[in-house]
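Attaching the record inline, Q. Sequence:
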Amino acid sequence: MKEYEKAIRKNYSQQDLASAILSAFKRQGKEIADHTDTSTFDEFHIRGIDATVEMAELAGFNEGMRVLDLGSGLGGPARTLAVKYGCLVTGIDLVEEYRAAAEALTGRLGLGEMVEFVQGDMIDLPIGDGGYDGAWTIHTQMNIKDKAKLFSEVSRVLKPNGIFAVYEICEGKNTPVHFPVPWADDESISYLATPDELRQEIGKAGFDEVIWKDVTALSREWFEAQLKSLASRPKDAPPPLGLNLLMGESAAVKLNNNLRNLKEERIEVVQGVFRLSS
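Structure, as predicted:
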């Protein structure tokens, strides 16, 4: 196993994650009957499921399209694409515990025929050439050092004129980032690119830019609302069915650091849609 793989798995891995999630729901007397029931933690990115829907609309993903979800985590965005847009989705994630949990949640919702998950490396995709209509990354490339290889792999697996959408955290005007953050406890697995660097690397891989948006202000507002909501919870309230299921006791510190980084312009958040040149 490569050293960076070990580091990323160490950062994200959690034993028996699927069982822990199901047990948390059982303790609170709740069922998983719809893909939105788990969206408070399986849409593991800024602005959650609202941003997933926004990205799908920007990309124009629709019924019957084969879409590759890079860094699919627990599978929330993949299931949203399947249920809301009728897409056939393949999720790729380096962390086996995430893949297993994503598969368990997907099977529980009866979506196994529309969504599949594969354990694999985004810069060495276990997928043949030219089979997908679209692909996206949602808060994943921060852990990828070799971005040129990543985007080259995306272009390889897409059909001509395929769509590539990104919703990513980038390096801001000021450095360094305050750690820990959700994607890294320290700088050893954090490889932020500036927005311009990200656009340039995607372009070098053969993509033409269709849409580019800075959503940093919206992201800051969302974090402020989330942290305000957490602070207002009664002290004797049961643990929320939220990102604490993935980040444990460090969740509050990491979320507060993300907000601090946004306020101090140490990180920026962008959305982009690109089309592979034919």
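The two ends are 36 Å apart (CA to CA). The chain has a mean pLDDT of 93.

More tomorrow.
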